[in-house]
């Protein structure tokens, strides 16, 4: 986890413009950990984040090989965010995803049964997701 957080921080510091973050799965958790550990100057570069299919890294049956992502931060993200979850994600119950959204101050978007919201979900170019990203980008 620490390497992912550092990698995100390094990438954002190299950008000399505003940033919108888009994350899937563990990337969502990475953003939450990153946001609580960096300077206000770096955070000020971020306009928002689209967080898709965050896993419940605190669940007892979460993938044992993935460590360092629990407990999840419960602090509000210092930028606007939208958290998107499906009703049948095998890595996170819908109620738990909504709880994460509440902790992080994210607008919660509930999808139907789309699994882990990836290519297997059959969403194609996912126009709805693109609209949500545009909402963040243009606010």
Distance between the termini: 30 Å
Task: State the share of residues found in helices, binned by percent.
Answer: 25-40%
Q: Tell me, what is the CATH class?
A: Alpha Beta
Structural class: alpha/beta
Number of helices: 5
Q: How many DSSP-defined strands? A: 4
Query: Any idea of the CATH topology?
Result: Rossmann fold
Strand order of the largest sheet: 1-2-3-4
Radius of gyration based on Cα positions: 14 Å
CATH architectural type: 3-Layer(aba) Sandwich
Low-confidence stretches: none
Mean pLDDT: 94
Query: Largest beta sheet, briefly?
Result: 4 strands, parallel
Cα shape: globular
H-E string: HEHHEEHEH
CATH superfamily: Alpha/Beta hydrolase fold, catalytic domain
How many separate domains? Answer: 1
Query: Which range does the strand content fall in?
Result: 15-25%
Descriptive terms for the model:
139 residues; alpha/beta; Rossmann fold; 4-stranded parallel sheet; 5 helices; globular
Written overview of the protein:
This protein is α/β, with parallel strands linked by helices and 139 residues long. It has a single domain (18-61, 72-137), classed as Rossmann fold, CATH 3.40.50.1820. Helices cover 35% and strands 18% of the residues. It contains 5 helices and 4 strands, in the order H-E-H-H-E-E-H-E-H. A 4-stranded parallel sheet has the order 1-2-3-4, with helices on both faces. Strand 3 (80-86), helix 4 and strand 4 form a beta-alpha-beta unit. Helix 1 packs across helix 2 (26-35). The chain is globular. The model has no long low-confidence stretch (mean pLDDT 94).
